[in-house]
Design goal:
The chain has a domain of 167 residues. Helices cover 54% and strands 15% of the residues. It has 15 helices and 8 strands. The strands form 2 sheets. Strands 5-6-4-3-7-8 form a 6-stranded mixed β-sheet. The longest helix is centred in the first third of the chain and has 33 residues.
């Protein structure tokens, strides 16, 4: 308080440098999905926090005794004989911290895909025991390119500190806001308590963030531009998918009259089970209509499959699947997965027997409508450039069949064009 009272604005600006002492703490919870909260709490309170306090107290004592060591107090408190081992340890620590953030990026991307905020990408599971341990090659390559650009562009850690400060303090402020939302909506905290706690935490976070904003033109623009770019991609994909689903529903045929008509005028039936993937439960899947139109047949048993990803990490066993008979050997099957789960459709179908709908995978064929999205400036929804961006992402996204782990040798895809 005395420091701020004496130095005023300069003290506030100094927070931009002080916050660098806190950086790295955000990497602790980046691996939450890999290790869980208990190991992270034990690591923080049992080892990391005491080590940090001792280290910073040691640096402070060094500066009080030798003010000239201000240029690099961390390495100057190390005995000369241990200098090179300490450099090696610091390098290893940087690699470990980077790995934590990279793993966190993989987990968040996977969850964003499940929640519909990211285009589908290949995901590689690196553990048989923990579903959260994943590797996303596309994200890994993107991070590599961004790191190389940052190293070449900023050239030194001092130049990069401005970008790092804004990124970290921005993350802290956003995390606080999200925690307050969770406290209110999920934990049902009293509104007054949420406001009071939020006021205290945001005062600290926004003070650090504001002190770093003066560094925008010195490199702080980099994380802001990068974050804005990712935000545009995520919102464009989300909005684009909504427009595609809306376009499909507008041109859809009502399901109930269709089944009645099939019962009155039955087409040729062929043995086996047909599973039609659809996002709209009230209308006939395009793949079913195209199959009936071109092949002039229906299977003995037809299942309309809808896959829903919940806002919770794991779906409860009681809500994982629901089967409804629609008559005429038509069934509606709903599969629900948590956003942290892998939507494995064949595995879920094997569990449908207890719900009265057994499947023989060797006698089951999957039908999927492959939408070709076309940007049309005459249609409302998004700006034309965002339409084209969504079309590009849709063409390069991982097919839904691979995302749902549907075997390719049991799949028939039928095309459909959708304008957005």
């Amino acid at each position: 308080v005395r420091f701020f009272h004496t130095h005023g604005l300069q003290a506030f600006i100094s927070l931009g440098g002080v916050v660098l002492a806190l950086t790295g703490a955000e990497a602790l919870y980046a691996d939450m999905g890999h290790f869980g909260k208990r190991p992270i709490r034990l690591a923080w309170f049992g080892f990391v926090l005491p080590a940090l306090v001792l280290n910073y107290f040691g640096q402070g004592a060094m500066l009080l005794e030798h003010p000239a060591a201000v240029d690099n107090p961390f390495f100057k408190i190390v005995p000369h004989a241990l200098l090179y081992p300490m450099i090696g340890l610091a390098t290893a620590a940087a690699v470990i911290a980077s790995q934590a953030v990279i793993s966190g990026a993989f987990s968040m991307t996977r969850e964003a895909m499940s929640l519909g905020y990211s285009m589908r990408m290949p995901v590689v599971h690196t553990s048989r025991e923990m579903s959260g341990q994943v590797f996303v090659p596309w994200v890994n390559s993107f991070l590599l390119v961004m790191v190389l650009l940052a190293v070449v562009g900023f050239r030194s850690s001092d130049s990069l500190s401005a970008a790092y400060g804004i990124a970290v303090t921005g993350t802290m402020a956003i995390t606080t806001l999200l925690a307050l939302v969770v406290a209110r909506r999920q934990w049902h905290w009293n509104g007054v308590v949420v406001v009071l706690v939020g006021a205290v935490l945001l005062t600290i976070d926004l003070s650090f963030f504001g002190a770093n904003l003066i560094k925008v033109d010195h490199g702080g623009w980099f994380p802001l531009v990068l974050g804005l770019g990712v935000f545009v991609l995520m919102t464009t994909w989300r909005r684009g998918r909504e427009l595609v689903v809306r376009g499909i529903r507008q041109g859809g045929l009502a399901l109930a009259p269709f089944i009645e008509n099939i019962s009155e005028h039955p087409p040729l039936r062929v043995p086996g089970t047909a599973v039609f993937l659809t996002a709209n439960q009230a209308s006939v899947p395009h793949s079913l209509l195209h199959n009936l139109k071109h092949n002039k047949v229906l299977h003995e048993r037809n299942v309309l499959l809808t896959v829903e990803v919940l806002d919770t990490p794991m779906a409860d066993a009681t809500e994982h699947l629901r089967v409804e008979s629609l008559g005429g050997e038509f069934y509606r099957l709903e599969l629900r997965f948590g956003f942290a789960e892998d939507p494995n459709v064949p595995l879920s179908l094997s569990q449908c027997a207890r719900a009265g709908l057994p499947f023989d995978m060797m006698d089951t064929t999957f039908f999927l409508s492959r939408e070709t999205v076309v940007a049309d400036k005459r249609r409302p929804g998004m700006a034309l450039w965002r339409d084209k961006l969504f079309v590009f992402m849709a063409r390069n996204a991982l097919p839904a069949t691979a995302f749902f782990q549907i075997p390719g040798n049991r799949l028939i895809e039928l095309g459909a064009q959708v304008e957005i």
